[in-house]
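Hello again, I could really use a second opinion on something today. Take your time with it, there's no hurry, and the full record follows here:

___
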Amino acid sequence: MREMRQAVELAAEQVPIKLVIAGPFNPGARAEFQHDRESPLVEQKGILDRQQIAELLARARVGLAVYHPTINYTNSQPHKLFEYMAAGIPVVSSDFPHWRKLIGSPPCGLLVDPLNPAAIAEALVWLFRHPVEAAEMGRNGRRAIVENYNWEREAKSLISTYAELEAGA
């Protein structure tokens, strides 16, 4: 989270931007963000219901999914990433090989070194300064959700797997 805050501070020197954080904080992150309560660049929303999340995403210009390269994240599929794509907003995400496949073709965002605030800021500024391309990335993400990453498609795969397991039993 520190890198996101630093990136927004850097990007704010060039474009009007604000970091809005929703959801629970782990104790370490909460302590780190205590001083941001008075910052005009960071807004902490806390835990939101589905309607509030939808309203927040409807106002967002970019979704940030910059996780540190730990085993818990490098091969994960974070809900946050899919929520941004479903909302039709471009993402700035960690450049992990698995994530590269999810958002790379057609591009629905920009990949960055999650430990480099300057790189994250550069991606944010680029998306703000290139609204046509950013909107296209958002549409690509939405299309990927509709065509590939949805329950109907996954249900078929899951049912097929169950059928194979049952046949083999």
User: Anything to note?
Assistant: The chain has one domain: 2-168. The chain has nine helices and five strands. Residues 2-168 form a domain with the Rossmann fold fold (CATH 3.40.50.2000). The CA atoms of residues 50 and 56 lie 10 Å apart.
